[in-house]
Specification:
Layout: H1 26-35, H2 40-49, E1 57-61, H3 67-72, E2 78-83, H4 86-95, E3 102-106, E4 119-125, H5 133-146, E5 147-160, H6 167-175, H7 189-198, E6 202-203, H8 204-214, E7 216-223, E8 229-236
Parallel strand pairs: 1-2, 1-4, 2-3, 4-5, 5-6
Antiparallel strand pairs: 5-8, 7-8
Helix pairs in contact: 5-8
Length: 237
């Protein structure tokens, strides 16, 4: 089967090239579950409280190593776990092989084509920041259109809730919390610096305007104390 990104028109962003250096690195993928806990079971309980039912269709874009996909599989009828990274997909397929209701698909925000019943929930955690803002808006519109009316988009990401004039202070404070380079069990300062410098996290006021523009209602917006992260519950009207 031809990979979705191989069929993209010449003007479209290359999602694989934009996936982040570390997510294309097999060594990073191997240690990912050690350094990053998705809090997946708590997320499933949050979604249950928002109406997730046992007959639901859930799409996760940027599924990574499958922490959330495996946790939600027991709470719904169908899970489609989507990622663009070959090393992530390899690890993901191995981990979910015994879960009959999880489908693994190669693709991303701009290339995944949903088939079958509309999604009840789309979930994405720490993935949208790989897209520049123009493409974030395109991705949000595509997600909106794959959801059933009333369906939910749950987003966790690096979203800045500080003002541009505070950027130096806030970003330096965050980067200083990184561990030493070479510590396999933690994100390093260099990892954080690379994120700020090379990836595409955006301001909350920009991201929220995109969400409203494509037709989402923002039901919840929670910002971290360090003003670096945000969690959203967005609903298709």
């Amino acid at each position: 089967m031809t990979a979705p990104h191989a069929l993209r028109p010449g003007w479209m962003l290359d999602e694989v090239a934009s996936a982040g250096r570390e997510n294309l690195d097999a060594a990073h993928v191997e240690r990912y579950d050690v350094i990053e806990d998705a809090g997946a079971h708590a997320e499933v309980e949050t979604l249950r409280g928002l109406g997730l039912g046992t007959d639901a269709v859930v799409v996760e874009i940027g599924a990574g190593t499958g922490q959330f996909a495996m946790a939600v599989a027991g709470a719904c009828a169908r899970v489609i776990a989507v990622d663009v990274s070959t090393p992530m997909l390899t690890r993901l397929r191995t981990k979910v092989a015994s879960c009959a209701n999880i489908e693994v698909r190669e693709g991303g925000f701009l290339t995944y084509e949903h088939e079958g019943d509309p999604a009840d929930v789309v979930y994405t955690r720490y993935a949208l920041h790989h897209l520049p803002d123009f493409w974030k808006a395109v991705a949000l519109a595509r997600i909106h259109d794959m959801l059933r009316p009333g369906g939910l988009l749950r987003v966790w990401d690096v979203v800045y809730s500080f003002s541009p004039r505070e950027a130096d202070e806030v970003l330096e404070a965050w980067c200083s919390t990184g561990g030493a380079d070479g510590d396999a069990g933690a994100w390093s300062r260099a990892d954080y610096e690379e994120h700020v410098r090379d990836e595409h996290s955006t301001y909350s006021w920009l991201f929220e305007a995109m969400c409203r523009e494509v037709g989402f209602t923002i039901e919840e917006a929670d910002y971290s104390a360090d003003r670096m992260f945000a969690q959203y519950v967005l609903r298709r009207a």
